[in-house]
TrEMBL record:
PANTHER family: BLL4220 PROTEIN. NCBIfam families: SCO0930_lipo. Transmembrane segments: none annotated. Keywords: Lipoprotein, Signal. Residues 184-207, 301-324 are annotated as: Disordered. The keyword Nucleotide-binding does not apply. GO terms for biological process: alkane catabolic process. This is Lipoprotein.
Amino acid sequence: MNTWRNASLALTAAAVLALTTACGQDNGNNLGGQSVGAANPAAAGSENGYGSDGGYGSGGAAQAAKPAGQLALSDTKKLGKVVTDSEGYTLYRFDKDSASPPKTTCEGECAKAWPVVAATDVKAAAGMDASLLGEVTRADGSKQLTLAGWPLYRFAKDTKPGDTNGQGVGGTWFAAAPDGKKAAAGADAGAEEGAEDEGAQRTELAGLSVRKDPKLGDIVVDSKGMTVYRFTKDSAWPMKTACTGECLEKWPVVAPVDKNDTEGITKKGYVTFSRPDGVKQQTIDCWPLYTFAADKKPGDTNGQGVGGSWYAVSPDGKLVGAPK
């Protein structure tokens, strides 16, 4: 018994030491904040961009593909018009799929959280271009409904008609607008995808990568090219955040990104931060990462210097342009 207990304590101490080594150094500008949660190493493959709960959003067995029936357009307050099935459930698209040619990448565990919409027995909604509806053949030979080439899904955590709980999950899932583009608040929804040619999908960025800004130099951006920021009132070790509640409406957290889905950034202290609201947040050098809601298009840096507390992030996780 003592031998087993001693071994267990030794393993626990080793794990703590490893995390301390990753997160407890080179953090001289630790300014504190509200203590929340804990940090968990983001092992390769542990987060796949599908959402939460092990990367997929929900457990259980994969559901058999259900036809959508008579499609409808639901006019939501936040997202504008979104496509729903005959029962009023929101239909979604996945950024890691492609529309030209149509291709689905959501299989296995992913399809448990995001049930496939069958291509049979479907009718276009009034005011919708029926020619945009199509199908794609999945790996198992079944046919999945597509809209403007994008495969369509439901979300297992939408429990009643009108729910849009899948919107923005993992930064890769979005409700489908009537033209097949991503539904999003405001008039910028269409502009976001305006650069996509009908015949070719735009070049995909890594989940986190580096962009050379003409004023700030090398800064980290997310998969949409949006600038990534740090908050000086957070701290890296112990990991704490001072951005909660209304703050998160302006500064959305960066969802976990697999280490293999990054380019040009440091892997030191590349761990997942568990927030008190249950949301997982990506860190670089153990510093929690955010985007800024007022950045409307790739290349915007409207969050730089806001309140003297928010700054873009360098590839090694440092603040860019902050006062010394």
